[in-house]
Amino acid sequence: MGKQDVRSSNLLGSTSTRLARVQDRRRSYGYVGPADVKAAVRSGNEGHPIRLRADFDRWVAERSGAELAEPFTFVVDMDGVLRLAPRRSEHVTCAGGGRVLSAGEIAFSRETGRWAVLGVSNHSTGYCPDTSSWPAVAEALDRAGLGHPPGFTSEVVFRRCLTCQEHNIVRENYFVCVFCENDLPALWNVDSCDERP
Predict the structure, then answer these.
(1) Cβ neighbour number for residue 106 with a 10 Å cutoff
(2) Rg value, the chain, Cα
């Protein structure tokens, strides 16, 4: 292989690696929770959209101290918009019943006169997003002008058992189904109809 071939090969390799990262970052997640919860979703009950810092400032000003003392439910919708709802809200309601780029819980704190993200997780048993969904969250927070940690402060690893089809939370890297005790896949597999936008 000549120098040009090696350079082309390296270029193709790095291009395909970047493409794989972009595709993974833009993976979407369908709702995998109870059907009756999704059936109860009504138009107009979606989480509050936070596109800009001004959206967040208006939203946070309307929250009580008690509300701000606990995390909120969040999703990043298919347009990359952060949506916020009270903690006990269903993620699928926050998303208006649609697919998401990420979902979980998020807490805010006021530091030196500005609000920032105190903690954020991908804990959503309705969508079971992979830990690799962080870039979508970071992009939405950046657009909203909110300081944030470099990744999820609490990561939840979800897997679907290929034997019994139950959804599992993997704890301490123990990839064994809690329902039937069969091995769980190493890679995320919860939403079997994963679609790329």
Answers:
(1) 22
(2) 19
Burial, 122: exposed, middle or buried (Cβ in 10 Å; 0-12, 13-18, 19+)? buried
The two structure tokens encoding residue 178:
């809690």
Which token pair is 32? 């995998």
Neighbours of 45 (CB within 10 A): 14
DSSP-derived secondary structure letter, 162: T
How far apart are the C-alpha atoms of 71 and 52, rounded to whole Å?
Answer: 20
Regarding beta strands 48-50 and 100-111, do their DSSP bridges make them parallel or antiparallel, or are they unpaired? unpaired
Distance CA 178, CA 142 (A): 37
- Specify the pTM: 0.84
State both tokens at 179. Answer: 């329902």
Strand partners, 82: 50, 76
pLDDT averaged per 10 residues, the chain (length 197): 41 39 70 96 95 96 95 98 96 98 97 93 98 98 96 98 97 97 97 51
- Please name the residue ranges forming H helices in 47-90: 53-61, 65-68
Please report the sign of the dihedral spanned by the C-alpha atoms of residue 81, residue 103, residue 145, residue 52.
positive
Do residues 179 and 161 touch, judged by C-beta distance below 8 A? Answer: yes
